[in-house]
C-alpha cells in the first residue's frame, strides 16, 4: 500500500505544480496585456498629437487622424501577440511525465491488488465447498502414521 499512497502523493504534487506553472504564465500574460493597454493609451495620447499635427500638414485632417489611429492599433496588436505567445507546456512537460509514470504504477498496483483479491475469493470459495480439503494432507499423514504403528505391533 505504500507504493499506492506514494503514487497518489506524486500525482497530487504534480497536478499542483502544473497548476502553479499555468497560473504563473497567466499572471505574466495578464501583466503583458495591462502593459499593452497602458502602452496603447500613452501612445495614443503622446504620439497621436505629434503625428496628427505632422500628417495634417501633408494630407487632410481626417486622413491624418486615420493614419495615426491605424498605427496605434498596430502597436497594441504587437503587445497582444507577445502575450499570446506565452505558454506553460514547456515548463509543465517534465512534471506531467512524472505524473503519468506515477499513474501507470498506481494502475499496476491496483491490478495486482485486484488479482490478489480474486485469488483470495477463490480460496475462500474452495474452502466453503470442501472445508476438510485444507486439513486433509495433515490428517492423512496422521492416519498413515497410526496405521504403520499399528502394523508394526
Automatic annotation (TrEMBL):
Organism of origin is: Falsihalocynthiibacter arcticus
As recorded in UniProt, coiled-coil segments are 96-123
In which domain of life is the source organism classified?
A: Bacteria
Membrane-spanning segments: 31-51, 63-83
The lineage is: Bacteria, Pseudomonadati, Pseudomonadota, Alphaproteobacteria, Rhodobacterales
Q: Can you name this protein? A: Phage holin family protein
- Is Transmembrane helix set as a keyword in this record? yes
Which keywords label this protein? Coiled coil, Membrane, Transmembrane, Transmembrane helix
Amino acid at each position: 500500500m505504500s507504493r499506492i499512497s506514494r503514487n497518489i502523493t506524486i500525482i497530487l504534487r504534480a497536478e499542483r505544480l502544473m497548476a502553479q506553472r499555468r497560473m504563473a504564465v497567466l499572471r505574466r500574460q495578464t501583466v503583458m496585456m495591462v502593459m499593452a493597454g497602458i502602452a496603447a493609451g500613452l501612445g495614443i495620447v503622446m504620439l497621436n498629437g505629434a503625428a496628427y499635427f505632422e500628417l495634417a500638414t501633408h494630407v487632410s485632417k481626417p486622413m491624418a487622424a486615420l493614419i495615426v489611429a491605424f498605427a496605434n492599433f498596430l502597436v497594441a496588436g504587437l503587445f497582444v501577440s507577445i502575450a499570446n505567445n506565452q505558454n506553460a507546456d514547456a515548463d509543465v512537460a517534465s512534471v506531467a511525465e512524472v505524473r503519468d509514470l506515477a499513474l501507470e504504477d498506481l494502475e499496476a498496483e491496483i491490478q495486482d491488488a485486484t488479482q490478489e483479491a480474486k485469488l483470495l475469493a477463490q480460496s475462500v470459495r474452495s474452502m466453503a465447498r470442501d472445508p476438510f480439503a485444507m486439513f486433509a494432507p495433515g490428517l492423512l499423514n496422521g492416519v498413515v502414521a497410526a496405521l504403520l504403528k499399528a502394523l508394526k505391533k
